[in-house]
Amino acid sequence: MSSKVFFLLVLFLILITPSSVLAVGIGKYSSNTQMVFSPGLEASYEYSLFDSPRIRASVEGDLGQYAVLKDPDPNGGPRNVIVSITLPEYIEPGVHHLYLVATQSSENGGTIGGIASVRTPITVFALYPGKRPEFSSFSVDDLNINEKTDLRFNVINYGEELIDSASAEVSIYDEAGALITTLQTSSSPVEPFQTVTVAGIFDSAQFNLPIGRYKATAKYFYDGKEFNQTGETEFIIGSLNVDIVDTTREVIVNATNKYYITVESDWSGDITNVYARVTLPSGKIIKSPNIDLVKSSNGIKANGIIELYMETNDMPLGENNLQVAIYYNKLTTEKTIPVTVINGIAPEIEKPGLPIQTLAIIGGGILLLGLIIYFIFFKSGGGSSRVSGSPASNTSSSSDIRPPTL
Question: How many domains is the chain built from?
Fold first, then answer.
């Protein structure tokens, strides 16, 4: 192989090899870097520094003065470091942080402009005297008509003393704001710096409730006292239905148009293999690909967009009625949907293209590969300088995309 060919091969490999961006990272060997304050408590944590040939490590935060960084190669390359902390006799109650910071640096130890540091925390909780509850994550699961649902909340005790009993009183309201019922959750003790999930059950069948959106509010109690914190959330009582909530309003005459159907459901589970059949005024039926409607978060309906391709060659200008049917779980939702056919430039229906950068790399690679072949076979006499060809075969353009029809 000649030197020119070798050079071109090397250049080709450089072009097709993704370039790397210098960065810096921190990995930790301990999964738990949270501490509960105790006077004089000592702890050590080991970390790995990586992704840069020169890394400067440091510690910062309101507990930085109580930490020692053991670094075997300051401003060196990937390595392990140890952060040792010795807590004082007293710190203010609350949450305190110590951070290990890793920064990419230059040869003389200075930081490189534009490269952000990364840091990872060590968290120290200093408990409050007495009992200090904090309630959070109040939620009620969506449900279907005449079903039961769980309601739950979390409580953590930031105090030094045991909470004997934590509970909640939950009120359920309809969409108009009328009170439906009030119920009590279970109760649970909470140890210092322990998080407990407390739950209750709401049985909608007792109240013959229709589908719709509902609200739940919570009052929290601990050891017989009402806490000055409340919770609120929404949830849905649903049924197995899929509604059509929006569609494409206008399409171009004598063209292939993308047609969108937005659907939603308040069902409390997933609905798979949802698809549409659209009947055009000519009687032609178009079937869409299948989509899944995935259960949404509390109080938010699951939704999705069905996409299909519509020919408007047989549709007159103006308003036309489409018969749209949505199929799911052996059920059907049907609606007559108007669409307006207008004059305009036919839309280009294209397949997803590759990113410009990827195209440039592929193009450059093909060009270089062609040069390599040229040098190997033609300059060295290994092939003929004449290349025969054949007529191009008929191919369909991207604008000829058509959906399957029934």
Answer: 3
Containing domain of residue 274, as a range? 243-342
- Same-domain pairing of 211 and 284: no
**Per-residue tokens: 388:** 């025969």
Do 187 and 151 have their domain in common? yes
Q: What is the CA radius of gyration of the chain?
A: 33
The answer to whether residue 17 sits within a structural domain is no
pLDDT of 6 > 60? The answer is no
Q: Which of 220, 238, 256 is the last residue of a domain?
A: 238
Torsion of Cα atoms, 314 then 315 then 316 then 321, to 10° = 150
Q: Cα–Cα–Cα angle for 79, 80, 86, nearest 5°?
A: 145
Global pTM exceeds 0.70: no
Burial of 157 (0-12, 13-18, 19+ CB in 10 A): buried
**Sheet of 256-265: strands edge to edge?**
243-247, 256-265, 302-311
Average pLDDT over residues 79-88: 96
Confidence at residue 377, expressed as pLDDT on a 0 to 100 scale = 57
Sequence letter at residue 218: A
Which residue among 126, 158, 174 closes a domain? Answer: 126
106 with 24: CB under 8 angstroms?
no
Q: Residue 357: in which H helix or E strand, if any?
A: helix 356-373
Q: What is the rounded CA–CA span in Å between residue 115 and residue 332?
A: 56
Rounded alpha-carbon distances, angstroms, from residue 362 to 8, 10, 13, 240, 369: 15, 16, 12, 49, 10
Tokens at residue 332, please?
Answer: 């059907």
Q: 122 and 143 in one domain?
A: no
